Amino acid sequence: MDKKKIEQIRQQYDLIIHNIENADIEFWYARELMPLLGYGRWENFDKTVCRAMESCETSGITVSDHFREATKMVELGSRAKRNVKDYMLTRYACYLIAQNGDPKKEEIAFAQSYFAIQTRKQELIEERIALIERTEARGRLRESEKRLSQNIYERGVDDAGFGRIRSKGDQALFGGYTTQEMKNRLGVKSSRPLADFLPTLTIAAKNLATEMTNYNVEEKDLQGESSITGEHIQNNRSVRDMLGQRGIKPENLPPSEDIKKLERRVKSQEKKIAAQAGKLPEDFTEGEQDD
Length: 291
Description:
Layout: H1 3-15, E1 18-20, E2 25-29, H2 30-33, H3 42-58, E3 67-75, E4 81-89, H4 91-99, H5 106-116, H6 122-153, H7 159-173, H8 179-186, H9 200-220, H10 224-244, H11 259-277, E5 289-290
Antiparallel strand pairs: 1-2, 1-5, 2-4, 3-4
């Protein structure tokens, strides 16, 4: 997600902030938040809100401090009016809703970052979105490699063979450098996965090559280590060639911070969000907000 788009979306979120007079608490209405999160139907969004409330309760936090059911008067097509269900949501509640949304949606990735960062500074939001994109890419690679491992096991290749196939693929992607040589170049311990230290682009490249291998292994019913190795090497070379056309050499890209450290930092941050968000006053009613 580019900087200009992030700023445009941030402004949309800022426009629907409500404040509780004399309480220094921001809140959002669920029906105003819903379209920004990519939901078109209230029924679907209501389910996501309910899952977020369950997450809140599971964390040992009082749900009513952050989720408050409300009603809103809306005008129908016939100009008649009726009350509809809504929720008042603290920043922590909005964060939990984003956490329970579809992570593949750009809107959800933005919301997770927007509501996690108390100051909502542009650069901090950008930084956290980049982290989410990297962790999502790492998760997809993990799943595609798991699928490849299962595919080749069903075709007569053991764990050691899987390691050799994956290493040959790395060698093709990284211009002749083996997995261990790339670890040495990037200063990665032998015991740690190389992908935990790769930038998002390289992780995505490895995932694309692995998915191509999975597809052709299944479609062509490739058997044995030799034929699957050849397929994986060819796919990694193809991805390398594609990157090369854009002037990118994966082996020359600098390492990224250990993804495990980043994940721990995010978890630590999450524990502070509820306290920073404040609580909805017990006697608060809709007429008391200062918009």
